[in-house]
Predict the 3D structure of the following.
Amino acid sequence: MRQTSLKIAALAIVSVTASIASARAESLIIRNCTWCHGSSAQGYTPAPRLAGQHVAYTESQLLSFRTHVRDNPFSKQYMWGAAANLSPQTVHALATYFAALPAEAANDGDRELRAIGRTIYQQGLPDANIAACAACHGPRGEGVATIPRLGGLAYTYLKRRLQQWGEGYHAAARPPMPRIARKLSGAQIEALASYLSFVK
Amino acid sequence: MISVEVMKKIKSYSTVGAGAVGRRRRRALRLVSLIGAPVALPAAILALVFISTGHADSIERQLPASGGFAAKMQYCEDCHGPSGQGYRGFFPIPRLAGQQTEYFENQLRAFVERRRPNNIMANVAHVLSPSMITALAKHFRSLNPSPLGGAPRHLVATGRKIFEDGVPDANVAACAACHGPDATGHGQIPRLAGQLYPYLVKALSNWGKERGQLPGHPDTSFIMAPVAHSLKRPEIEAVAAYLSNVK
């Protein structure tokens, strides 16, 4: 009886240790990302949330880091190195992994500016030739294909990206983003970033 | 806004001098302030309200974009793509390049009049002057970028047949009869050549819900209603695939 229970205990210990070891090996690649992007990939200043982002968009950004097309300061400092040696298979695996994670809204914008931000996002400002973001990014900030999901991204991240396009940094995205962002005033950027940070 | 009297009073608090002159001024101000308080406080509250809504105004209403037509045309291209070739956003945004001017202008009016319900385009269109509409229509008519493409290729042959011969069993006339053998349209009849695949599919599938929606104000879109209604989904996808590749 004692021998059997000893054998069972040994088996249990070995199997648990083995599963921990393989889980650790699997998660090493993900951990390269979660160091900065947060353990549940929800984002951690200045790294944006990756959870729930479209596969095609995440892939396109990782490619743009490797080709140095996306050249804003944080990308240059951190992401150029991080993406340098990723194979296409790894890129796809990472993008697919993060896309499936549940996304949480940052809720860190200025609440006073939400209503104005919503107006700009949903309707645009035709007098100022500012397109409605919803036309491409969707009425709930959901995005599609290579057009990123914006709903719930952090206020500081959205604000910084919109500012940077106005400052001449290149978009990995299609051409209109820099041109559209250049037309936005500082107050409009803050309103948009605030509104979007609350969108689930 | 704040009255001149209240403004003067507010200013005067900071400029009261010292000595005898100052004492006289302060006595006078004390008397004035007793009378003025019931006026000053509501005025101050009103001032705050106006200032904060003024702030909101400045966010919502920038000065009109400089450059007039050029800026407006670029703004169209922000969504409709370079040279108006169309763009697959969350919503399929149609190609404008080469579009018939009459059709183009009619659609912009339809958005404003809500014959064609579309919140984003209604917003865009209602600030356009008639001369701007005409100028934009003429400009996009002259453009001819390559079709955006991306439709399923295996449907193209079937689609071409439907376009050229119609679907006699379903009483659907040949599209070419009105839209032209090269699908470039004429007058109020739109150009279909090179139009986006998802846009054509959506238009034909939802015709009865998207066009001619203002009760009591039928428009030319009624002509397409029986056609769109009689086409089956596979036929819609086929003809859309064919048209999306036509140069």
